[in-house]
Amino acid sequence: MSQQVIRLIVTSDTHGHWLNQPDNPKASLFNTATCIENLKAKDAAVTLTIDLGDFIQGSSFATYLSQERQDGRVIARAMNVIGYDYQLIGNHEFNFGQDYRDQIIEDLNADLLVSNIIDDATGKPFLGKPYDIIEREGIKIGIVGVTTSYIPNWELPAHYEGLRFEDAFESAKYYVEIVRDQVDVVILAYHGGFERDLVTKEPLEELTKENQGSEMLAGIEGVDVLLTGHQHRELNQQVGQTYVIQPGYAGEIVAEVEIELTDNQEVSGINGTLHNTSQCEVNQAVKAVMEPEITDGNNWLNTVLGVAPLEQVTTSPIDARLNGHPFIELLNQIQFDETGADFSSVALVNDAFVNFHGEITNEILLKSYPFYNLIAKVNVTGNDLYEVMEFNLQYLEVNAQGNIQVNPEYVEPKPRHYNFDVYSGMTTTVDMTQPVGHRVTSIVDDRTGKKLDKNATYSVALSQYRAVGGGDFKWYGKEKIESISNIDIATLMKDALGNYTQEKWDYINSNYQHLKWDPKLDIADMNNL
């Protein structure tokens, strides 16, 4: 019996890494483009190329486009040369507001698949269409697109005004049922991941519906291939009747799925491959179409902004989170200056803080703090802050040797080190030998030297992401926001380089420790992040 083949070529969470991959400065999305080109030319199989979203934000170059140039259409030009057939919307497509996203989307040649983000005015998907049915070589293919519905828990309301987010599982099920009987092959493309282990079915995270891939596998019949993203995992396996793919992060991986069909158009086998794109050459055609933005962007990124006289007290991210660091204190002082809040908190989002001293360029700044977050001032009770700190400390646990280590749930399946906040303006005494939820011994207001009154109201300066409850910090929220700055943190960091006095820098270099560990335990394997 003869075989026909449908080939899916899939990327996700490329995050604008056109200049370099995070862990490989010699590779970039230009290498990814060549890998896709090679797979398209592999043979005469029916081929569909799909990107699952999170493609306009996440790199220094993407930030240059959105904040300095304020024009990201070069991304669409590049993706059109690559030749994507379908495009999904990811949660980070909302980071820079709807106008910026839409200018890029409007220039894309790919068909946009959006089933569960609804325009309140029309009751229909706000962009594109919920699914597509095509026929190639006599094979009918249905593809449904869906996005994590958790976006309002991360974004400012202005970034999704006029939209509502329907349950991703329910939308996927509804449209798969419409498509299933009309086609030979059903593909479900989802900007989201898996909330449960694919083998044991045990939860991998709190079941918030941020990720509903496991629910889709269990509750939607007739899906041949489930394409996933969002978690930056590398997945390639059969789960029950459905083949599952997730192609990593930053274009480091291109997923290939080959669906074999009999001459009666019945699926007879599915195989997947995850291709490492660093082995591919730079795609000169795609690179050429991104000029002059690439050259201009590199020049801007290499521009020197000033000098940061910060002391490097440690190069270990976990040590910096637990015992403080002048870089973290700098961010908190910037938030204090902007809001006048009682307390301030920030997250150390990566390990690039070690480069933030001496001469600072735009690139060093953006790698150290890669988000153009606004600063919010929220009002909470003292009791809220005690509960926030208990929740915050779930990031840590004590191992069998009696040492503090990162809770594995914050490492797998997706690293979430950004969900541990470091507070300034208050000193928290912690006893890690106590059970979860009972570790905070006291919280003292540094201004008064007195413990927080659990019934009193205090103001806290936070990033906009945390202020709306991002990271499941439910004690914050839109209703508790008093004000939001007009200037983002990254811009204020540039201002600090020019305006902070030596006295201010000296204060930052000597007042960065705000956690007391009693008893004091050793940190286990500090570099194991």
UniProtKB/TrEMBL annotation:
Keyword entries, A-Z: Hydrolase, Nucleotide-binding, Signal
Top-level taxon of origin: Bacteria
Transmembrane segments annotated in the record for this chain: none
A Pfam family that the UniProt record links to this protein: 5_nucleotid_C
Molecular function GO labels: hydrolase activity, acting on ester bonds; metal ion binding; nucleotide binding
GO CC terms: outer membrane-bounded periplasmic space
Domain Calcineurin-like phosphoesterase: residue ranges: 6-233
Residues in 5'-Nucleotidase C-terminal domain copies: 322-476
Gene Ontology process terms (BP): nucleotide catabolic process
Keyword Hydrolase: yes
Family label: Belongs to the 5'-nucleotidase family.
Record's protein name: Bifunctional metallophosphatase/5'-nucleotidase
